[in-house]
Amino acid sequence: xxxxxxxxxxxxxxxxxxxxxxxxxKEYEAQKRETEIKEIEKEMLKQWQVxxxxxxxGLKEVRRSMGGLIGGEGKKLQDYLVKSNTLAGxxxxxxxxxxxxxxxxxxxxxxxxxxxxxxxxxxxxxxxVTVQEELGLEDEVLVDALFTAAGIGIVIAKNASISxxxxxxxxxxxxxxxxxxxxxxxLAGGSPSMAGHSxxxxxxxxxxxxxxxxxGLVEVPCAKRNAMGVSLALVSADMALAGIESVxxxxxxxxxxxxxxxxxxxTLRETAKGGLAVSDTGKKIAESYKQEK
Amino acid sequence: xxxxxxxxxxxxxxxxxxxxxxAGASRLALLARSVAGGTPQEVQILLHGSFAETYQGHGSDxxxxxxxxxxxxxxxxxKDAYNLAQEAGLKYTFTPINLGESxxxxxxxxxxxxxxxxxxxxxxxxxxxxxxxxxEINDFSVELKGDLPTLISNHYDVPGVIAxxxxxxxQHEINxxxxxxxxxxxxxxxxxxxxxxxxxxxxxLDEILQVEQVVDVRFVExx
Lengths: 293, 223
Hints:
Strand order of the largest sheet of chain B: 3-2-4-5-6-7
Number of strands of chain A: 1
CATH architecture of the largest domain in chain B: 2-Layer Sandwich
Largest sheet of chain A: none
Structural class of chain B: alpha+beta
Largest sheet of chain B: 6 strands, mixed
Number of helices of chain B: 7
Shape of chain B: globular
Oligomer: heterodimer
Order of helices and strands of chain B: HEHEHHHEEEEEEHEEHE
CATH architecture of chain A: Orthogonal Bundle
Helix content of chain B: 25-40%
Helix content of chain A: 55-70%
Largest interface: A-B, 57 and 36 residues
Number of strands of chain B: 11
Number of domains of chain B: 2
Mean pLDDT of chain A: 96
CATH class of the largest domain in chain B: Alpha Beta
Mean pLDDT of chain B: 92
Number of helices of chain A: 13
Shape of chain A: globular
Strand content of chain B: 25-35%
Distance between the termini of chain A: 51 Å
Radius of gyration of chain A: 18 Å
Low-confidence stretches of chain A: none
CATH superfamily of the largest domain in chain B: D-3-phosphoglycerate dehydrogenase, domain 3
Distance between the termini of chain B: 20 Å
């Protein structure tokens, strides 16, 4: 495949050849780079290792963010779920703790993988590490799943956006949730078309989410939206694995997402001029942050 | 149009918090450093648009200084860039500025005094996901993404210069991937930006400089 334009193309090709979506995406990338599949797998393994390290770093130590608004929430949730019977279940809380931890590492100038952006970097690692642990999978399989996530991300970038400034938070945490859902379905042995449905279901749930960073920082509400993204990804994957379909086909959802993004006013696209950024508390935080500097 | 790579979507590996304001800032500064031929002596960093608004909260200041010192966007040492700049003797200022509507909302202008006492200005934008575009060098418009080896030359705008330069590259089996020529006025100085598949060694640059109408030539390594 020379171009990745639609998720449906990936699904069709994968089902025709009875392979995983990741196989098609790997072939696309190797062809594009004029290199061996082994080489790009090696490169993706590095990304995967950085993702795992970022989780460990974030859960090990409490790190204050650059703007001082967040820090330690991932660890707090992890401590809680060890001590208490959670309401939503241990696994999903653990995934959320991991996603929060990575978001905190990002906000404190630690090393992360933009997935697809810095603001949404906790969702894919949080979901995938949790599924890896649950199913006892090898890193090589996880690397494959990352190619699936990235292939879907390419389609979203082309037909919608993966930038909050262009498309709001749906383009960042939303895209990450859709990508992660499809990757989780593949990891669980679901079909390519199930992966597509999971992505469609996830994206439909965040359509229209605005980007309204308090004081313009990648902290509030960004970190906690990673919690939303990772739980949405896992729930959407489970729904698709159960055989639930997205009535609106995934590619149409992505196109709708692009249109919604274009229709969002500028105040709700990363400018810190709308939404939570202009709430009373948001404005106070922005004001005191400015004075501090 | 260049098709997306999977690593444009999952990547870059970077120091947070923002791909555009931290990783992009670092890459812009790395490119400016490369144009300047190494760590500068002095730099005035002018910040336009959202860089002017939020550069400290995103660590853009640290990433910009780090990049000028040669630290990549995934180097956790950029958190310590102020101390490292002092150790390296790099003098710097940060000034918010309004360059006007025609500039991308995430633009930085570097006014650099190089190690060789040359004055160079480099203007560029962080265009999302850590990707950058250098738009001006010494007030000449260019378009430089920094993902390929790049040759930038100024020459007198007369027929045949481009052919001579490309012939020299061909003789050394250097393939041109993308090419742009800009000028302010007909038959005055024109700027040529050649993105190549191979690195261009100093000996080839010297040879290009021998072409009579070529005023100067510099090579920018990919970042």
